[in-house]
């Protein structure tokens, strides 16, 4: 109840390889704690791995860290956004 926007988010389960499905997912990423070297490349690596899982899987970035999570502020991180930050260092 402390983070009301999370109440409607379905639970995520992890299964062994035999039980996985290739249904597209919607996954959010949140970075907090200030600037860090390589932060952009971590998100790009996640994006690339998710595309291997299913090309229709969508990655969202929460804007303003935890505040964006609690207020539902996010941006769709599609390929046109992601690769503008490739090898750009931290975040």
From TrEMBL:
Signal peptide: none annotated. Keywords: Cytoplasm, Glycolysis, Transferase. GO terms for cellular component: cytosol. GO terms for molecular function: 6-phosphofructokinase activity. This is Diphosphate--fructose-6-phosphate 1-phosphotransferase. The gene is pfk. InterPro entries: PKF_sf. SUPFAM superfamilies: Phosphofructokinase (SSF53784). It comes from the Bacteria. One of its GO terms (biological process) is response to glucose.
